[in-house]
């Protein structure tokens, strides 16, 4: 029997316009939010101080999940399907937005649309893939969007 190793997509396997759905989702806990927020030295009381947050208008007195946790998790949910072992580098993010907040107990689902791809002009055997990551909560509301450029390996079997 053949060995099958889980991996992301080679450059050639990405399809422009394709939407990749990443499952399962991830339910955020209070612990996730507090640990991430304190590890990253973000002392914003909107994430850490339940009493202070309860007195603030706008979000029903609830603490908000750190938006950087949301972005990181949206990208993380895509790794097994898209970039596991095939990415060379993360080139950068553009157009990052958080249209709606996440709260403790919400479940985050991710999807990615391949916006474009092209072979690298300076790095043979590699290509640049532009990905739009979208995070939705359990109600289908968009809570995060980001466009990311990645440098991805071409299929080594397809090279001469």
Polypeptide structure, described:
The structure is a single chain. The chain has helices at 30-39, 45-48, 50-54, 67-82; strands at residues 19-27, 87-97, 107-119, 126-136, 142-153. It has 160 residues and is of the alpha+beta class. It has a single domain, classed as Hotdog Thioesterase (Thiol Ester Dehydrase, Chain A), CATH 3.10.129.10. It has a five-stranded antiparallel beta sheet, covered by helices on one side. A hairpin with a 6-residue loop joins strand 3 and strand 4. The longest helix has 16 residues, at 67-82. The two termini are 27 Å apart.
**Strand composition percent:** 35-45%
Number of domains: 1
Structural class: alpha+beta
Any idea of the CATH class?
A: Alpha Beta
How many strands in all? Answer: 5
Radius of gyration: 18 Å
What low-confidence regions span 5 or more consecutive residues with pLDDT below 50? Answer: none
The helix-strand sequence is EHHHHEEEE
Number of helices: 4
Strand order of the largest sheet: 1-3-4-5-2
Second CATH tier, the architecture: Roll
Domain MaoC-like: 17-133
Family: Belongs to the enoyl-CoA hydratase/isomerase family.
Protein name: Bifunctional protein PaaZ
InterPro entries: HotDog_dom_sf, MaoC-like_dom, MCH/BMMD
List strands and helices in order, with pairings:
Layout: E1 19-27, H1 30-39, H2 45-48, H3 50-54, H4 67-82, E2 87-97, E3 107-119, E4 126-136, E5 142-153
Antiparallel strand pairs: 1-3, 2-5, 3-4, 4-5
Question: Which short descriptors sum up this protein?
Answer:
about 160 residues; alpha+beta; five-stranded antiparallel beta sheet; about 20% helix
């Amino acid at each position: 029997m053949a060995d099958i190793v889980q991996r992301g997509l080679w450059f050639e396997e990405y399809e422009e316009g394709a939407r990749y759905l990443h499952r399962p989702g991830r339910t955020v806990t209070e612990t996730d939010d507090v640990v991430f927020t304190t590890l990253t030295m973000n002392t914003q009381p909107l994430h850490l101080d339940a009493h202070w947050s309860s007195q603030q208008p706008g979000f029903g007195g609830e603490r908000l999940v750190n938006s950087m946790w949301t972005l990181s998790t949206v990208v993380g949910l895509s790794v097994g399907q898209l970039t596991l072992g095939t990415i060379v580098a993360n080139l950068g993010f553009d157009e990052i937005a958080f249209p709606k907040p996440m709260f403790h107990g919400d479940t985050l689902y991710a999807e990615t649309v391949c916006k474009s791809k092209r072979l690298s002009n300076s790095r043979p055997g590699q290509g640049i893939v532009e990905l739009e990551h979208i995070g939705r909560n359990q109600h289908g509301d968009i809570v995060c969007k980001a466009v990311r450029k990645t440098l991805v390996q071409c299929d080594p079997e397809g090279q001469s």
